[in-house]
Automatic annotation (TrEMBL):
Signal sequence interval, chain numbering: none
UniProt keyword terms in alphabetical order: DNA-binding, Transcription, Transcription regulation
PROSITE patterns from the UniProt entry: HTH_CRP_2
A biological-process GO annotation: regulation of DNA-templated transcription
Record-linked InterPro entries: cNMP-bd_dom_sf (IPR018490), HTH_CRP (IPR012318), WH-like_DNA-bd_sf (IPR036388), WH_DNA-bd_sf (IPR036390)
Organism annotation: Weissella kandleri
UniProt keyword Amino-acid biosynthesis, yes or no: no
Coiled-coil intervals: none
Domain HTH crp-type: start-end pairs: 151-227
Pfam families: HTH_Crp_2
Domain of life of the source: Bacteria
SUPFAM superfamilies, per database record: cAMP-binding domain-like, Winged helix' DNA-binding domain
Name of the protein in its database record: HTH crp-type domain-containing protein
């Protein structure tokens, strides 16, 4: 993609590194560069159903949308790679997926799906990556749906905060606390935990603050008792068979 101005980045994952090497060899007309700002969306229902969306830079949230309009967040993504993959024969069934931008800006490549799948069929490493992505996506959807059905909102919120410490956590060497270094709203927490009433999130977070398990510094969360969250996250995963 050198004729469009290359974006040179280093990727540790061999699959992701190979993906961007393949993209660099694709024709400019088969790639659209998309830049989005915070709180905007990329919708699965929009555009060509065979489009492939690649995250280049930024933080995004992948969500499932039910036919009734309810939203269930699946995961954060901040590592470059595939975030939306659709085949021309894809059936969305009961759910659609969308991508919400959760950093100030995010950069994407939209690839021509037909050309991409032709590349996949002739590239073993790319094929392995696509299979890995698809299995990971299916497992993540199953995990989120099982947790949302079989556990209380308290358990789901504890587990979510623990996952955030692994994704965004910065440890304070003085007191051992963990700063979740990303602005996370109560609505976002609710959408990740299947809690529709935002006041319920506020109440649970207030209880955690009162018990000195977390603190809040403006929009950022500081975890004071990581063991409390980890133990309850482990129990939740065990009960869900994960």
């Amino acid at each position: 993609m050198s004729n469009n101005g290359e974006i040179k980045m280093n990727y540790d994952n061999k699959y992701v590194s190979h993906l961007f090497e393949v993209i660099d060899q694709m024709s400019y007309k088969d790639i659209t560069v998309i830049e989005k700002t915070k709180n905007t969306y990329i919708h699965e229902s929009g555009g060509d159903k065979s489009d492939v969306i690649i995250l280049v830079k930024g933080i995004v949230i992948s969500s499932l949308l039910g036919t009734s309009g309810n939203r269930l967040n699946l995961c954060y993504s901040k590592i470059p790679g595939i975030i939306m993959l659709k085949k021309a024969t894809h059936s969305t069934g009961e759910y659609l997926c969308d991508i919400k931008i959760d950093s100030e800006k995010a950069l994407f490549y939209k690839l021509d799906g037909i050309k991409f799948w032709n590349l996949v069929s002739n590239d073993e490493i790319l094929r392995e990556y696509v299979l890995e992505y698809m299995f990971s996506r299916i497992n993540r959807e199953r995990e989120v749906l099982v947790k949302s059905i079989d556990n209380t909102k308290y358990e789901r919120l504890y587990a979510f905060l623990y996952e955030c410490t692994k994704l965004f956590g910065v440890k304070n060497s003085d007191d051992g606390s963990i700063l979740i270094d990303h602005n996370i709203t109560h609505k976002t927490i609710g959408d990740f935990c299947g809690i529709r009433n935002r006041s319920s999130v506020t109440r649970i977070m207030g209880e955690l603050i009162k018990e000195n398990i977390i603190k809040q510094d403006y929009r950022k969360i500081i975890v004071m008792d990581l063991d409390f969250l980890k133990i309850r996250s482990d129990i939740l995963n065990e009960s869900a068979g994960l």
